[in-house]
Amino acid sequence: MDKKLLEILVCPLCKSDLIYKKEELELICKADRLAFPIRDDIPVMLENEARKLSLEEYDELAKHQTSLVD
Fold first, then answer.
1. What is the C-alpha separation between 24 and 38, in angstroms, rounded?
2. CB 11 within 8 Å of CB 29
3. Which residues contact 49 (CB under 8 A, 6 or more apart)?
4. Whole-prediction pTM value?
């Protein structure tokens, strides 16, 4: 993923900053508990393509707050 693109992307729903999960190829919105997929280096920022984070994933994310770019 292009770092400059990651710096300007925000959640399309609430405009919050996103967390880049490199291994999972996802952009996470903590506020909405959504994970947006990245396919072929292109973020898919559509609500109907995002998956809901489980409570366990959300708790883990809160424990290990990561930066926008891992």
1. 9
2. yes
3. 36, 37
4. 0.85
DSSP-assigned states of every residue in 29-48: ETTTTEEEEEETTEE---GG
Label residues 11-25 b or e (16+ Cβ within 10 Å = b). Answer: bbeeeebbbbbeeeb
CATH 2.20.25.10 fits 3-63, yes or no: yes
Using DSSP's 3-state secondary structure scheme, residue 18 falls into: coil
How do residues 10-46 score in pLDDT, each as one tens digit?
Answer: 999 999 999 999 999 999 999 999 999 999 999 999 9
Confidence at residue 65, expressed as pLDDT on a 0 to 100 scale: 64
d(CA 23, CA 13): 24
Q: Please report, for the chain, the start and end positions of each structural domain, with discontinuous segments joined by +.
A: 3-63
Residue 1's pLDDT is what?
A: 77
